[in-house]
Amino acid sequence: MKLRGISVIAALGALALTPAAVAQTPEKTAAETAAATGYRAPRNVWGQPDLQGTWTNATITPAERDPKYGDRLALNDKEVKDLETGNAALVAEGNKPTDPNAKVTDLPTNCGRGFTGVDCGYNSAWVDPGTRIIDLEGVKRSSIIVEPKNGRIPPLTKDAQEKMSARRASFRGGRGSFDNPENRSLGERCILSFGSSAGPPMLPLLYNNNYQIVQSRDEVAIDVEMVHDVRHIRLNGRHLPSNIKLWMGDSIGHWEGDTLVVETTNMRPEQAFRGASPELKVVERFTRVNDKQIKYSFTVSDPQIYSRPYSGEVALNATKGPIYEYACHEGNYALPGILAGARNEEKEALAAAKAAAAGGGGANDK
Questions:
Q1: I want to staple 208 with a disulfide (CB 3.0 to 4.6 A). Which of 136, 225, 231, 357 is the partner?
Q2: What pTM, to 2 d.p., does this model score?
Q3: Per residue in 159-192, is it b (16+ CB within 10 Å) or e — as a string?
Q4: Which residues contact 302 (CB under 8 A, 6 or more apart)?
Q5: pLDDT of the chain along its 366 residues, tens only?
């Protein structure tokens, strides 16, 4: 199964802080929260906190907060119920049978989750973005981004804005370049996950939001379901030379108490989540806060791209395994179809130009 787009979660409803929500402090570290509850993560045979297992970060909480909610992170129970009920209704609507005789022009102009027009060709049964709001450390989250306080990714620097504008200007119809396979996205080419599922940072998206963590004495490996990626985190090592660029970057980890701290550099420029420069650095923290949940925190720093660093928090919730194989290349007709369609459009345009030239220039030539 392969989709063309990345989910844009439906906008959050109106928020109102309750006293209970205000009492929670999202800035509190996962270690402090675990200590307050008396929880101590189990140990593996090497004495490390045991993070192993199968986890999911599926959620309807969006990465960025709707600006109208300002600095509010916590949702109350009624707001959570309304959002989750609304999402269930969206799924039910999307699962209605589609007329097999319908044409592309008959598709809905807006089918939710950010999809419009021809991108509405998938019933909800084919996607699995999650059904619940993030519930982490007693706070029901309105956004994944927690810093800046407004829950928004900071503005791009002036130089980054100019480069992005130039790239967009070169895209045909807003959908990118169709000149060759290398111009298409990594997800379309089955090289790496859509969005930033593989990470870092590891963020939820439209479907396949599952991860398996395996530990050894010297490494932590994370199997990412989306496009079958495996992250290798070397413990207590040193970064490779800066000229060696890797998919998912060069990740070095160490333990700070019960928290696995991972610093990643040397990301390949093609794997640019909302832009990346050679200065990109992502610091992640994995802390098991109870038997069923890992608090996953991250901070992204890139002074060439962003006006300031930003941070986020996601709940990794225990789920049943195993992770199924994502055989991306099998039956991937989308990529050759996209390129073939572009070549056909070019032939039609060339034929029309030749016909116009042969006609002697049109109505004025009499």
A1: 225
A2: 0.83
A3: ebeebeeeeeeeeeeeebebeeeeebbbbbbbbb
A4: 275, 276, 277, 279, 280, 281
A5: 333 333 333 332 332 333 333 333 445 566 666 666 789 999 999 999 999 999 999 999 999 998 888 999 999 999 999 999 999 988 888 787 777 887 767 766 666 666 666 666 566 777 888 999 999 999 999 999 999 999 999 999 999 888 888 777 766 555 567 888 888 888 888 888 888 999 999 999 989 999 999 999 999 999 999 988 899 999 999 999 999 999 999 999 999 999 999 999 999 988 877 778 889 999 999 999 999 999 999 999 999 999 999 999 999 999 998 998 888 877 778 888 889 999 999 999 999 999 999 876 554 554
Residue (of 223, 231, 227, 229) closest to 322 by Cα position: 223
Alpha helices in the chain (DSSP H): 19-23, 30-37, 77-94, 158-170, 334-358
Q: What angle do CA 362, 363, 365 make, to 5 degrees?
A: 80
294, two tokens: 């890992």
Helix (H, G, I), strand (E, B) or coil at 298: strand
